[in-house]
């Protein structure tokens, strides 16, 4: 059959069309149908709803707010928070309405006094000279409120009600000017856009730092002008069920980033790596690499400080989901010493490199002398903890890692971590069967 233009008719009987296909095309459609379905629903199942977007926007919408009058009690903040198109609309309407309102009153005074009936009577003294209708009254209102100066239209001293109205319009016009110009000034000078040049690393990492397991992320400031009194905070957002059975969908837990020691106060001249030590007070104390891969949480980081140019407080936010936390990685260095200055290469700001890191939780590795285990090949360590070290040992990584458990003893290990590599580990990482370990009396939770 040639020159069949109405091919859509084949789709109206899709079942017969598929049955009539040749076997190779039928098998192709069969495979594609399942593959597309799995990919579609699989992608939807893995998508996690963020509490805070990477750019700092909060995904919270307030619905069913009945007491809307509360917004009017703080009308200034309400106007400042409006989008620009609505702010400009309110700005224009505020002036237009006051001009029209007082223009109508000026016209009404002229109408009640009979000025409009004596326009050709030169012996008549009107309230406002040369006011001959609503348009001229509207123009006189604009001239009065904006103080651009009177021409032929000018108020006379024979109109006491006009003098009172002139005083009222002058006072009210000054208030409208102060309010609207203040709103626009605050909106223009808001430091929200300053946060656009405060950057966070796209991933957080978990690795050893001074023989302690730490969660780390990097922050930087792209501008030459600095953020004054900069401070950093981090919160863990995760669902929780209390002992009484109460379910808290978005429980917030503080992550210590140096508040006790003052390390949360930053001198943000060059990019800094913010570290959260995973100790017994940390919510990640019992989290291993395998648990991290299947856990569901969000880490919200908040950087605050004052803009050096304006003195206004600026806040930048970002977040990391569980799949954005890389276990066994650390950030690449950015700072290099040039002739007379330090240079920051922001091209590698988000880059990380794998490093030897135990795959078990910090609880299981607490008190472990990593340097001794690596140098002696001691297999007394649970397999899940060794797996993270072995995996990089077999790759030939030549990175230097200090493994002295903070004692200050010689514990720098360079290269392949061969001592543990000789134990025959597969380097798969994880705990128990996920690390593909042989049967062991000890394993990670």
UniProtKB/TrEMBL annotation:
It is found in: Membrane. GO terms for molecular function: inward rectifier potassium channel activity. Keywords: Ion channel, Ion transport, Membrane, Potassium, Potassium transport, Transmembrane, Transmembrane helix, Transport, Voltage-gated channel. It holds the Pfam family IRK_C. SUPFAM superfamilies: E set domains, Voltage-gated potassium channels. Residues 198-364 form the Inward rectifier potassium channel C-terminal domain. The record marks 177 as: Role in the control of polyamine-mediated channel gating and in the blocking by intracellular magnesium. Residues 5-42, 52-191 form the Potassium channel inwardly rectifying transmembrane domain. It catalyses: K(+)(in) = K(+)(out). It comes from the Eukaryota. It is a multi-pass membrane protein. Associates with KCNJ3/GIRK1 to form a G-protein-activated heteromultimer pore-forming unit. Interacts (via PDZ-binding motif) with SNX27 (via PDZ domain); the interaction is required when endocytosed to prevent degradation in lysosomes and promote recycling to the plasma membrane. Its main location: membrane. GO terms for cellular component: monoatomic ion channel complex; plasma membrane. Coiled coil: none annotated. One of its GO terms (biological process) is regulation of monoatomic ion transmembrane transport. This is G protein-activated inward rectifier potassium channel 3. Belongs to the inward rectifier-type potassium channel (TC 1.A.2.1) family. KCNJ9 subfamily. The chain crosses the membrane at residues 23-41, 86-109, 163-186.
